[in-house]
Amino acid sequence: MSEDALRSLQTSKYMQQVSDLKERNMKENYFKEGYAIRDQFATHFLTLTVCGWIDLFTRKIYKDILIDAFKYGQQQNQLIIYAYVIMSNHLHLVARANDKQKKTLSDIIRDFKKFTHHQMMPAIESNEESRRDWMLHQFAYYGQYNPNNEAKQIWTNNNHPEECFTKAFTDSKLNYIHQNSVRAGIVRNAEDYIYSSASNYVEKGGILEIEVI
């Protein structure tokens, strides 16, 4: 084998090792839960994120699917929501599981993600979605790194739960949630953003009923 051919083979093996390492890190870290819900019936601040921070929720149809799923959880007397906001690629939530029910907060969020995934995927696959091919490719890419998942994955596994131990901490999270749309430049006043509970806190109501704290 010539020197150039040997060098090319060594380079090829090195690049494959780098690729294998990146894939292993993706499997081990990307879908790894960094936070844990220890008290399943305590109030938590949660962040649910779309894989790759893809701006899926720029279209109304996807945001409405999330709202309907929240309403279902409330109607089943499972989920108590204190605050929420839906942004372009993630949502924030202050909520708890109803302690009169057997379903834990982890179970509720897992089922929420599963249900909304199956509701949103047909909309993504439809001809009305101009970003269809690109998004399907991206969700398939992230899905392949999760052995517990189907072919495609919309949500990351990490819900970043933070238990609301004190009123001061809870109030800071409520303010953070409601100011998201203002910081993003979507609205001037937080209560003007439809997909947020900010309007509920100024007694204007909202598209989703919540428990004001």
Explain what this protein looks like in three dimensions.
The longest helix has 28 residues, at 3-30. This protein has helices spanning 3-30, 60-75, 105-125, 132-143, 167-183, and strands spanning 44-49, 79-86, 90-97, 162-163. The protein is 44% helix and 11% strand. The protein is globular, with a radius of gyration of 21 Å. Helix 2 packs antiparallel against helix 3. Strands 2-3-1-4 form a 4-stranded antiparallel sheet, with helices on both faces. It has 2 domains: 1-30; 44-202, Alpha-Beta Plaits (2-Layer Sandwich). The protein starts with a helix and ends in a 30-residue tail after the last helix. The chain is α+β, with helices and mostly antiparallel strands and 213 residues long. It is built from 5 helices and 4 strands.
Question: What's the short version?
Answer:
The chain is α+β, with helices and mostly antiparallel strands and 213 residues long.
